[in-house]
């Protein structure tokens, strides 16, 4: 969908069932990606959360440029998630839309709700009462030796040490990989659905160790304590195998909503990442 680069557009955050709490409570104080008030656009029993934004910043050409700006993406993603979280805090099941989902006007939003009403209603029923938890497993970086190693006594001794160090590193990597697989298997058994994502680059994760698992788990809200207790137990044993576990959430079910229509620029959602 092409969007003009002048005038006003509607930035869409999420789709939910139309409830009094959604408009009266969730959106009273929250602001959107451009600091704008957030409102609802309704069609029958569905509602979309939207905010009016300037086409100079959210039109097609502007968004192409913004995709190259990490700071813009980060601030926009935080504001997007803030709206979704505020809506979800009412207990309403919310289907988050992808970052930078933009429509021309209210008529376009209502047309989307009408055209996809059957699918959206079914997805809302499937995800009602569910939340998303994110789990990452990273390989632990080797700790520095407490003192300088003894100098090799010969070329053969040097080669022997190199081979020994390589084998130890390979063994550590194997154990960490096995731990990541075991953690995913254990958590999958507690989740209704899972999503596996490509390993996150260390530059994005801010973690020095290699990312071994990057997964999202759909869990009933009432089973949250059981899921987090399992993560805590697995986290406690992981360091012995050279792995570290990171838990985020609970989030709205970004990874399981499947509501990516009218996306001008696709970004990450849930931890949101």
What does this structure look like?
The chain is of the alpha+beta class and 273 residues long. The protein has two domains: 8-128; 131-251, Alpha-Beta Plaits, CATH 3.30.70. The chain is built from ten helices and eight strands. The protein has helices spanning 20-26, 55-58, 60-66, 70-88, 106-115, 117-127, 155-188, 202-205, 224-237, 254-257; strands at 8-17, 39-43, 46-54, 94-103, 130-139, 193-196, 211-220, 243-251. It has a four-stranded antiparallel beta sheet with strand order 2-3-1-4, sandwiched between helices. Strands 6-7-5-8 form a four-stranded antiparallel beta sheet. Helix 1 (20-26) packs across helix 4. It is elongated, with a radius of gyration of 23 Å. The model is unreliable at 260-273 (pLDDT under 50).
Give the strand order of the largest sheet, numbering strands 1, 2, ... along the chain. 2-3-1-4
Shape: elongated
Number of strands: 8
Instruction: Spell the H/E element sequence.
Output: EHEEHHHEHHEHEHEHEH
Helix content: 40-55%
Distance between the termini: 26 Å
Structural class computed from helices and strand pairing: alpha+beta
Task: Give a quick rundown of the structure.
42% of the residues lie in helices and 25% in strands.
Summarize this structure as a short list of keywords or feature phrases.
single chain, 273 residues, alpha+beta, Alpha-Beta Plaits, 2 domains, 10 helices, elongated
Please specify the SSE layout and strand pairing:
Elements: E1 8-17, H1 20-26, E2 39-43, E3 46-54, H2 55-58, H3 60-66, H4 70-88, E4 94-103, H5 106-115, H6 117-127, E5 130-139, H7 155-188, E6 193-196, H8 202-205, E7 211-220, H9 224-237, E8 243-251, H10 254-257
Helix pairs in contact: 1-4
């Amino acid at each position: 969908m092409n969007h003009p680069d002048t005038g006003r557009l509607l930035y869409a955050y999420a789709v939910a069932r139309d409830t009094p709490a959604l408009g009266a409570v969730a959106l009273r104080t929250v602001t959107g990606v451009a600091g704008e008030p957030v409102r609802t656009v309704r069609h029958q029993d569905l509602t979309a959360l939207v905010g009016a934004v300037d086409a100079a910043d959210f039109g097609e050409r502007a968004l192409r440029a913004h995709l190259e700006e990490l700071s813009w993406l980060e601030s926009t993603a935080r504001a997007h998630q803030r709206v979704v979280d505020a809506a979800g805090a009412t207990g309403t099941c919310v289907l988050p839309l992808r970052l930078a989902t933009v429509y021309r006007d209210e008529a376009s939003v209502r047309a989307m709700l009408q055209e996809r009403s059957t699918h959206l209603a079914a997805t809302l029923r499937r995800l009602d009462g569910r939340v998303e938890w994110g789990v990452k497993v990273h390989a632990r970086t080797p700790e520095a030796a407490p003192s300088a190693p003894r100098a090799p006594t010969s070329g053969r001794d040097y080669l022997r040490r190199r081979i020994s160090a390589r084998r130890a590193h390979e063994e550590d990597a194997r154990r960490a990989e096995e731990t990541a697989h075991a953690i995913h298997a254990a958590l999958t058994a507690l989740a209704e659905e899972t999503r596996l994502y490509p390993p996150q680059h260390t530059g994005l994760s801010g973690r020095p160790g290699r990312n071994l698992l990057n997964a999202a788990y759909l869990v009933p809200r009432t089973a949250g304590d059981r899921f987090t207790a399992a993560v805590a137990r697995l986290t406690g044993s992981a360091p012995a195998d050279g792995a570290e576990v990171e838990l985020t959430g609970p989030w709205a079910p970004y990874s399981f909503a499947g509501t990516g229509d009218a996306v001008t620029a696709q970004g990450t959602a849930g931890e949101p990442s």
